[in-house]
Write a structure and sequence with these properties.
16% helix, 8 strands, 50% strand, 119 residues
Length: 119
Amino acid sequence: LGLGLFLAAGATWAFFEYVVWATTPSELVGTWVVTEGPDQGGTVDFYRNGTMVAKVNHQGREGIIEARIRVEDKKLYVTTTHQQTGAVGTRVQTIKLLDDSRLVLEDERGMSVKMARAK
């Protein structure tokens, strides 16, 4: 009986973790390294729960950007909150390429960022 309850609890958790709470496409989840474009050398971590953490070079210092994300069709919506003012802003980027090892995003101004999946 105890083993049955344990297995049922595990299956329920897995269902919620990988299906219900997973709002980010599985192909996008993981750590990406910026190989071309602004913030070259920085990293972006996408999580299943619809969050993102980017580590970028900001005038010689590491800057950290935390955001909520959502993906609709080929559009990536990145919503951030300014730490000092509390202002909320959303940027939309088009996913030009997404496969197992490469990610290419293009912003509203036509600027591209190329990334490679971290090993």
